[in-house]
TrEMBL record:
One MF annotation (Gene Ontology) recorded for this entry: oxidoreductase activity
Record keywords, A-Z: Oxidoreductase
Segments forming domain FAD dependent oxidoreductase: 5-244
Lineage top rank: taxon: Bacteria
Gene Ontology terms: cellular component: cytoplasm
Gene3D superfamilies associated with the record: D-Amino Acid Oxidase, subunit A, domain 2, FAD/NAD(P)-binding domain
InterPro entries noted in UniProt: FAD-dep_OxRdtase, FAD/NAD-bd_sf
One Pfam family matching this protein: DAO
Name used for this protein in its record: Glycine/D-amino acid oxidase-like deaminating enzyme
């Protein structure tokens, strides 16, 4: 990361407001198209022998004593030496089916999508308050600007965070606040039309860390979930850490802070 002086910002982002005191530039920051990335990961998994069963719901777990030996689904039972709970925002419900507590909860977020524009936003641009917003434990509406252009010319404008369960109602106050803050950073977007908005539910844990690892409370079961607003970027790295944990390989980093049983331990202490 290097600092960018106020008078240099326009060399990076010519349409940003001139009112800024300075900026930070992350040269290694990258963008991915999430659906394309998911498609590539699925293709690679299939090439390595995975069988992908879409439209199949896990309804329970097969057990041999304490040990998890597979899953029960609405299309029949599947036996397995290991089961990985990667159910995203629903990972808590999935864990509950196995009788263990992994508190992954939904955090609603809206994104605004503009009409295709000539190149306007050249990097993923965050307001400094974004980090504080991701780490906040407030339940109410929080907004912090993050703006990025896409190859198609649309500009994606976020972001909001709210703890409202799985409520899919469109919130005009949230959309308005996202737009207001974005215009403060990019005044030239004022006349631009929005094509659509969308919402999603980020999977978060109360301590804002993901859950990655095998579960000592249910041998045979592992979890990888709860990555909040970074689960796409962190997906491949998280899978690597989980494989290391499951195979006993030397861990690339210490994953103790991510252990699935940490919440029950906190209750005991
Ligand atoms: C508005 C918004 C903006 C975001 N921006 C970014 C960003 O810029 N960068 C980034 O990295 N991340 C971003 N995220 C976060 C990212 O989308 C998530 O962290 C990520 O998608 C989580 O991936 P996952 O594989 O853990 O879960 P998911 O992608 O949710 O996958 C879980 C899967 O499990 C399935 N499932 C659930 N229950 C069952 C069951 N009982 N049986 C079978 N299947 C089941 C679900 O159908 C789903 O397909 C954003 C999220 C939102 C909402």
């Amino acid at each position: 990361m290097h600092e960018v002086a106020a008078d240099e910002i326009h060399g990076y982002e010519p349409h940003l407001t001139p009112e800024l005191a300075g900026a930070a530039f992350y040269p290694q920051d990258c963008q991915v198209q999430p659906m394309l990335m998911a498609a590539h990961l699925l293709r690679l998994a299939r090439e390595h022998g995975a069988c992908v069963r879409t439209g199949t719901t896990v309804t329970g777990f097969l057990r041999d004593g304490d040990r998890v030996t597979g899953v029960r689904t609405d299309r029949g039972d599947i036996s397995a030496g290991h089961v990985v709970n990667a159910a995203g925002t629903w990972a808590g419900e999935m864990a509950a089916l196995a009788g263990v507590d992994v508190p992954v909860l939904p955090r609603r977020g809206f994104i605004l999508v503009t009409e295709p524009l000539p190149p306007t936003v050249f990097h993923k641009v965050y307001a400094g308050e974004y980090v504080a917003s991701t780490q906040s434990s407030d339940e109410g509406l929080q907004t912090s600007t993050v703006i990025e252009g896409t190859r198609a010319g649309t500009v994606l404008i976020g972001s909001s965070r709210e703890r409202v369960g799985f409520d899919r109602t469109v919130s005009l106050p949230a959309l308005r606040e996202i737009a207001r803050k974005a215009l403060a950073l990019y005044p030239s977007l004022a006349p631009v039309a929005l094509m659509r908005t969308y919402l999603g539910f980020r999977p978060y844990c109360p301590d804002h860390l993901p859950v990655i690892g095998t579960d000592p409370r249910a041998p045979g079961l592992a979890h990888v979930a709860g990555h909040e607003g970074a689960g796409i970027g962190l997906s491949v790295g998280s899978a690597k850490l989980l494989v290391e944990a499951m195979t006993g390989a030397t861990p690339t980093i210490d994953i103790t802070p991510f252990r699935p049983e940490r919440f029950s331990l906190q209750e005991v202490s």
